[in-house]
Structure formats: structure tokens, C-alpha cells
Amino acid sequence: MIAFFRKNSFVLLLLAAFVLSDVLISIWDPMVTSRRFYKNDFTKTLYHHGWLDHGPVFFGNSSVTGAYIEEQSKSGLIELGLSYGKLTDLQALLERQLFHVEDQLVIAIDVHTMIDSLETDPTYQWFKPWYQPYVYTYRDYFRDSGSEAVRQLYEGTLELNRSKLFAYVPRWIDKELYYGKKADDELKTKWDDYERRFGWMSQPDYKDNLQALDSILRYADDHKLPVRVIWMPWNPAYPVPKYMAGLQTTVNQKLAQHQVPVLDLLSTYKPAQFHDLVHLSREVGAPVFTKEVDAWLQSLAKSSK
Fold first, then answer.
1. pLDDT, position 303
2. From what superkingdom does this record's organism come (predicted)?
């Protein structure tokens, strides 16, 4: 054994150095703590709430980010809209205790929330296996920020300008909002794309998210956490995806078994209130939506007393 270590000492020391450096970098967690690096929507939520990781939550995908104006709401919900967020993400958040939902959990489901195959943001914290090196997991973002750092060092050295040596452009820390209204030809193109990608889907294509819903409802029952579900608005200028009728029936049956209140807004908003097919306009639709959600939650609170 001693001979083996002596023979391979350089390789073993190199491996140890890599492991130690990766552990130190993961403790630093620059994807969260440093503005040099890209931030996903979960980290942005924490950032804008002073790193608070507990409280009542309004969870969903970007439709929630666009529609629910937290600073105008009287419900006290933390807007936890995630770009491409799905119920499998909420399940992971709860199981890994990355956020402790308290008092109330409002879940928004739109036409994309339950689609298993929908691409998502790979940088969400729950996707990283414990055994995968931190630097490898976020290699694209290290490459991006590292290239910027090398470029600044080069320019600062060349120009003898200390201010440039460690300068960087802080990465965007706000979530995407949806202002104005897209042109009709853009909406038609997007609808054609949705129809091609998702229009043929049925229950097998959202089975993982149905299982995640079961898990979330069991978690809520075990923790005595009130759950409310909102079917998010869809632009009525275009047909609702064919799979939605079956999806709503299946989901609503599960919710009824757990006595979860449901607010169905899928077809109640006007085309003029939308930015596109699934996002309400921040100026027109979002204020109406926020007030409507507030009033509904307030009515539920009164009826439970």
C-alpha cells in the first residue's frame, strides 16, 4: 500500500487538490453569492427577499412571475415563479428543504407546468447530484465569467489601469417581466410552435408531474399546510391546447380528494390583457390578476373561520 502511494503520489496529490478546491468553491457557492455569475430564478427570489428561505409561497412558472405583482398584493405571498418551473421542481424544493413553505402554498398551473419533457434551467440547485463536482456542474458559467476575468486582467495590465484589472459586468439579478403586447404574427408563430411540440400530448406525457402533485399533496397533509391551486390564464384568441381538458379533469379529481380549493382562470381573461399566449401584460393584465387572486384568497380565509 505504501509503495502504491509513493508510486502514484503526484496523481493522488493532484486529485486531492482538485477535490479540496472544488469543496472550497462549493462552500463559496459563487453561483449564488457572486454577481460575476448567472443567477437562476430561485436564487433571484432569495436575493430579492433578503435570502429569506421560509414563508407563504405562490409557486409556478414564468406565468406567475409575469402575472402576480407581489408589491401590490395584500396576500403576503412570496412570488416563487421559476422560469420553466414544474411541479417536479416544487417537489424537489420541499423534499430537499431548500425552501420552507409556511402558512399557505398557492400553486399555479398553466398549459406548460405539467409537461414532463419541457426543457428547464439546469442550474437550479436541486438538479446537482451530490457527487458531481461543483465546477463541472456549472462549467459553462465558469467559462463565461473566467473569460471575462482574463480579458479584464489583460486590458488592465496592458493599459496600466488598476480599475480594469478586476472589473466585471454584474449579472442580471431581476426576473423577466412582460410589457406590452406581441404582434399577431408573432403570436400565431408561437401558437404553431406550441401545437407542433405539445399539441399531441396526453396523460403519459405529464405522468411525472402528476406523481409530483401526489407527493406535494401528501407533504401538505403531513405538515397541515393549506394548498390552493390556480389554473393560469391562456390567451383566448387562440385555441387552448387539446390536452388541457384531460389534464384539468385528472388534476381537479386529485385536488378534490384533498379538499384543495381551485380558482379556474384558464379562459377568463381577454386577449388585450396578454403579452403573448401565456404571460399577462404587466401593465394591463397583471394588476387585474393580482387583485383577483387577493380577493379569492381573502374569501377562502373568511370562509375557514
1. 79
2. Bacteria
Q: Which of 87, 84, 90, 91 is nearest to 122 (CA)?
A: 84
pLDDT at residue 159, rounded to an integer: 80
On whether residue 266 sits in a domain, the answer given is yes
Q: How far apart, in whole angstroms, are the C-alpha atoms of residue 189 and residue 56?
A: 37
CB within 8 A of 246, min separation 6: which ones?
202, 203
In a domain, 160, yes or no: no
Q: Which amino acid is at 76?
A: G
Q: Could you tell me the residue range of the domain that residue 14 belongs to?
A: 1-32
Tally of structural domains, the chain = 2
Angstrom distance (rounded) from CA 157 to CA 152: 8
- On whether both 27 and 61 belong to a single domain, the answer is no
Cα 301 from chain centroid?
27
Q: Are 35 and 171 in contact (CB under 8 A)?
A: yes
